[in-house]
Design brief:
Distance between the termini: 38 Å
Number of domains: 1
Largest sheet: 14 strands, antiparallel, barrel
Mean pLDDT: 87
Oligomer: single chain
Structural class: mainly beta
Low-confidence stretches: 1-18
Shape: globular
CATH class: Mainly Beta
Helix content: 10-25%
Strand order of the largest sheet: 1-2-3-6-7-8-9-10-11-12-13-14-15-16
CATH topology: Porin
Length: 299
């Protein structure tokens, strides 16, 4: 997922020490993490999913979640997304999200290809205060986010206000969602993304015995960045209330080249806990990016 583009951004940033370029390179790290989301990002649900779309459903007495991300060794990036959501009477659900992605194994060289022992720090982190509230079959959300990106000796920080919305239609058979991430301005900007997703329940019935099941189809669109819109097609299978499978295939247009990627994941619910595991299909023989998530409902 956009791995070649990530390294192009890094290379472009080093000589120019361009702050806009550095912010875009930090956003590119989050697009690596997004490769492990096996459905359109606007449709993601849960505490940690507030990072992708702040318009989340009711949190009961509260939710806490943590996602850990590991890219292949050829990329060398790791990250985490941690979040907590708590209900607040007559206000809605408020929360806090902290997320960080970093690229390791960047070393300095002098007049030979051998490293001189010093490393080059490259990371991006975000801290958000989130709010969401249900209005009938719709949910609205907002996230006030502080962005901090560092590459070598250059550092840039900024604020953004992102918005999200979800709407259920046709007796919850159709769900539409949209959300922004790192929004800076209208039009194309390499440091931002706008995501839209549609989910349609194509079938609901009994899989075997008394086990209920449902099959959903999904479509997603991501734009707001240079290079054209990204398109995603996916499906999900729910087995009872404790097991679900998700898969997606995406065509991404970036840096003048179109690339295909895929991702798949499984979620298991046990009591008030939900465990998820997902991976992308890998591109250019670099290997796959993995994500492990744990979410708990507060008592």
């Amino acid at each position: 997922m956009r791995s070649s583009g990530l390294f192009l951004l890094i290379a472009a940033t080093i000589p120019a020490r361009s702050l806009p370029g550095q912010a875009a390179a930090g956003t590119e790290l989050w697009r690596l993490a997004a490769a492990t989301v096996p459905l359109p990002a606007a449709l993601a649900s849960g505490a940690a999913a507030s990072f992708w779309n702040p318009a989340q459903g009711m949190a009961g007495r509260g939710q806490i979640g943590l996602d850990l991300i590991q890219t292949p060794a050829a990329v060398g990036a790791t990250g985490l997304i941690g979040a907590i959501r708590l209900p607040l009477a007559r206000v809605g659900t408020v929360g806090f999200v902290y997320a960080r992605m970093g690229l390791g194994d960047l070393v300095r060289t002098t007049d030979s290809p051998d490293p001189d022992g010093a490393t080059i720090p490259f990371y991006t982190q975000r801290a958000s205060a989130t709010w969401s509230r249900a209005f009938g079959t719709a949910s609205l959300g907002a996230a006030l986010t502080y962005h901090d990106t560092r590459f070598d000796g250059t550092r840039i920080d900024r604020w953004s206000l992102d918005l999200g919305v979800t709407q259920s239609l046709l007796a919850n058979r159709l769900r539409i969602a949209a959300g922004t991430r790192g929004l800076r301005r209208l039009g194309n900007d390499p440091a931002q993304d706008v995501n839209v997703g549609l989910e349609f329940r194509a079938w609901r019935g009994t899989l075997w015995g008394t086990t209920a099941g449902a099959l959903v189809a999904r479509y997603g669109l991501a734009f707001g960045h240079p290079g054209g819109a990204d398109h995603q097609l996916g499906a999900g299978l729910e087995v009872g209330t404790s097991l679900s499978f998700d898969a997606i295939i995406a065509r991404e247009a970036s840096y003048g080249n179109a690339a295909w990627r895929s991702a798949a994941g499984v979620r298991v619910a046990v009591g008030r806990y939900r465990l998820s595991f997902a991976r992308d299909g890998g591109v250019s023989d670099l290997g796959s990016t993995f994500r492990v998530g744990l979410e708990a409902r507060l008592k």
